[in-house]
Task: inverse folding
């Protein structure tokens, strides 16, 4: 299995088993959140989230503890904002014989 696919699967797996904030540290992933009421969204820096909620806080449950800065709703959804996958994909080697 290629390294790229392995990383993608690892990220997918981490998301599936409800990643906690501490799980995002090796990936350098921040927390992406959006408001289900008004659609406002933002990326919250992982460091700030760790300082406020601690590494055991599950990311999907984090939204219940946040409030939308746009409309004040507490109907906020959160997920890890995996930053490395797109960039890693560009390192994929081309099949031979392409030139
Ligand atoms: Zn809102």
Result:
């Amino acid at each position: 299995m290629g390294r790229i696919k392995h990383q993608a699967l690892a990220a997918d797996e981490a998301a599936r088993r409800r990643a906690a904030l501490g799980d995002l540290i090796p990936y350098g992933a921040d927390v992406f959140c959006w408001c289900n009421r008004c659609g406002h969204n933002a990326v919250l820096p992982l460091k700030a989230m760790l300082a406020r909620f601690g590494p055991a806080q599950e990311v999907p449950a984090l939204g219940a503890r946040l409030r939308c800065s746009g409309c004040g709703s507490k109907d906020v959804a959160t997920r890890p904002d995996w930053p490395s996958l797109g960039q890693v994909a560009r390192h994929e080697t081309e099949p031979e014989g392409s030139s």
About this structure: The pocket of zinc ion is lined by residues 35, 37-38, 40, 68, 70-71, 73 (CB under 6 Å). Strands lie at 30-35, 41-44, 76-81.
